[in-house]
Specification:
Layout lengths: L2 H6 L10 E4 L6 E3 L11 H10 L2 H9 L4 H11 L4 H12 L5 E4 L3 H10 L3 E6 L3 H7 L11 E4 H4 L6 H11 L6 E5 L2 H9 L3 E4 L3 H10 L10
Helix pairs in contact: 4-5
């Protein structure tokens, strides 16, 4: 396997694709957690909080739809000697909107072209249900998706295979003809084990090349 194919993830096998499922964070819109606390928390303090305060595990509880107040209270009890960490988590949640730092370059045109081509699109995102209602407005094309599964509504998160099964069953999708696009290698592997076609997102250009190879988008200049 070449270095370029490793960077893109496992190539999709030949055959037709009837639906494309896209992650939200860092595929459609950039998510940079530290941006929420920039100017309030130093880089060093944030990095310590993430590494030693286990930020991602606690953030997953929010993505699972647990009430924010409960998560914050549990965090404070789990780290009684680090009230500063509890404060960082609370501030992150309070200023969450600032962690969404802008559209992923090139993805607006990819979405527009897929929709113009009549490709059926779905979303599958690990996201707290409340903040997602505001975040979805940042990507207007989401209103034209055939469906979106949000972890906080379902109390299931990727890479749990149950959330992929829910997506397939709810929308009547066949795994073998569904392309799943995500930036996380762990999520990609989980989807692949269920038989979904996969593309590990590293940029809009590489995704567009994959979509052209699958016949979902035309070669530029050959419309």
């Amino acid at each position: 396997m070449t270095a370029s194919s490793l960077a893109a993830g496992t190539p999709s096998p030949p055959g037709s694709v009837s639906a494309v499922v896209l992650d939200y964070g860092n595929v459609l819109y950039a998510w940079e957690p530290m941006a929420a606390v920039a100017g309030y928390v130093s880089v060093e303090a944030w990095e310590e909080f993430v590494a030693d305060g286990d930020f991602l595990a606690w953030n997953e509880r929010l993505d699972l739809g647990e009430p924010c107040e409960r998560v914050l209270a549990d965090y404070a009890r789990a780290h009684p000697d680090r009230p500063d960490w509890a404060g960082i988590l609370s501030l992150y949640r309070e200023r969450f909107a600032a962690s969404l730092t802008g559209p992923v370059p090139g993805m607006e045109s990819v979405l527009d072209d897929l929709l113009e081509a009549g490709v059926v699109l779905y979303g599958l995102t690990n996201f707290d249900a409340g903040p997602f209602e505001s975040a979805r407005l940042l990507v207007p094309q989401l209103e034209r998706f055939a469906g979106i599964v949000v972890s906080g509504r379902e109390h299931l998160v990727k890479p749990d295979t149950a959330v992929f099964t829910l997506l397939l069953e709810r929308y009547g999708l066949r795994a073998a003809s569904t392309l799943f696009v995500d930036d996380s290698p762990v999520n990609i592997r989980a989807a692949g084990r269920l038989g979904l076609r996969t593309h590990r997102f590293t940029g809009a250009g590489r995704l567009r090349a994959e979509l052209i190879a699958l016949g979902l988008l035309p070669t530029p200049g050959q419309r």
